[in-house]
Design a protein that fits this description.
Low-confidence stretches: 17-22
Helix content: over 70%
Number of helices: 13
Strand content: under 5%
Structural class: mainly alpha
Mean pLDDT: 84
């Protein structure tokens, strides 16, 4: 972390100049201009741009990956593609991130989402399970795999995952609502109503 800060600070000759570049986009854009192959600044600028200008962010992440390929760079590149709905491309980059770091929890989780978005529930389930193996308290993964299991008729296991999701995040409205629907479909109207009432009381 100290080396990264030093790399960025070395761009600016004086403290006054540093203060004049407070805006993140300007700061990191300037760093890219005056230092060769500054993958740190590229990734940081991409992070500032990804919501409003994902195309520009993707270009920067791709440049950073060519200079310094690692798990985080490929993960960030994949999430940028996913934000633009390009899930097939995102899948490739999530997998590259996992090649560098097989225990990268966000990569497994978001890869599962991209697999689901492209119509591959089996692959999605695999990576939701990997997410939960690495981080059992991941309430979003519990919720998403519960939805998937419910859709494929595995109601008992689905209910277990909804319960786990709500144990780690009791205020999860989506889980409460979907849990209620699953209980109703399983012929448990009293329990289903309890979940809907809990959602209304939040």
């Amino acid at each position: 972390a100290i080396a990264i800060v030093g790399l960025l600070l070395s761009v600016f000759a004086t403290r006054q100049e540093l203060l004049s570049w407070r805006n993140g986009v300007t700061l990191f854009g300037r760093a890219i201009q005056v230092t060769k192959d500054n993958f740190v600044a590229m990734g940081s600028l991409a992070g500032h741009l990804v919501h409003d200008n994902p195309g520009a962010a993707i270009e920067l992440y791709e440049r950073a990956a060519l200079i310094h390929p690692d798990a985080n760079t490929y993960y960030n590149l994949a999430t940028a593609f996913a934000k633009t709905g390009q899930h097939k491309v995102a899948i490739n980059h999530f997998q590259q991130a996992l090649n560098f770091r097989p225990t990268h929890v966000p990569a497994h989780y978001n890869l599962a989402i991209s697999w689901a978005e492209t119509g591959h529930p089996e692959a999605a389930e695999l990576h939701y399970r990997q997410t939960l193996r690495l981080q059992p308290s991941h309430w979003q993964a519990h919720n998403n795999i519960a939805n998937l299991l419910s859709e494929t008729g595995r109601v008992t296991e689905s209910i277990q995952h909804y319960q786990e999701s709500l144990r780690f995040n009791p205020g999860n409205l989506e889980a409460l609502f979907n849990y209620g629907i699953t209980l109703a479909d399983a012929g448990k109207p009293v329990e289903a109503i309890a979940q809907f009432e809990a959602a209304l009381n939040i």
